[in-house]
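PROTEIN DATA CARD
Card holder: KilA-N domain-containing protein
Chain length: 274
Origin: Algoriphagus alkaliphilus
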Amino acid sequence: MASSKAIEVQKINVSITDIKGQDYICLTDMAKAKTDESRAADVIKNWIRTRYTLEFLGSWEKIYNPNFKVVEFDHFKTQAGLPSFVLSPMNWVEKTNAIGIFSKAGRYGGTYAHKDIAFEFGSAISAEFKLYLIKEFQRLKEDENNRQKLDWNLQRTLAKVNYTIHTDAIKEKLIPKRITSNPSMVYASEADFLNLALFGMTAAEWRTENPEAKGKIRDFATLEQLVVLSNLESINAVLIRQGLESSDRLLQLNQIAITQMTSLVNSVSLKKIN
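Structure generated from the sequence above:
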């Protein structure tokens, strides 16, 4: 599912859409910096028909697109530079099965290109515009990375807070009044109980499989996993107070983990966290 955002480059709003984790920048918006909106398509067509541009596009597709039709590309390349040669982005995609450029209709409609190609198109606008485009795009990615780190740390903190509630329940139901073993061992067992339900392995098993990793299994959890882990800790505390046997709790928690992870991974709203 694609998500859209925008940056401002020299007072021009440039849309960016995410396709399978890759950023595609709107060439139509970029072209407005060179001409009015009605002629933006002509700017793109004039750029794509040159031999240099076709060679660049073809090279990009050969690297990243295993289904690129090289024979059709060579045919276009032999015609490049001829006064009669005309090529639109749509025709390029249809004939060569290219993935670096696409056109779409709607609110964020226009011709989009992978960021590598969009930066190259920036040279057709002006060197200054290209440099500002790269600068603003980098700023956007830095902001996104900072927000993702904040989200991860927030969920990690939430998981730790809920763990306090979780250990309180263990004190009430799992630790005998007259204890002969270290209570921390019981907590560790319950922590691994949740690791089994969510990750399918204990902390010790994870360390065996990842001997070079610095940190614990939960330190390498995804944002989705941390969300589910936080929920499992609270749910497990309730199940403990209800007196459920370990085997029953594990089955229930594992099913909950599967259901919630499936929902989160497919969630549009989670992928659009800003």
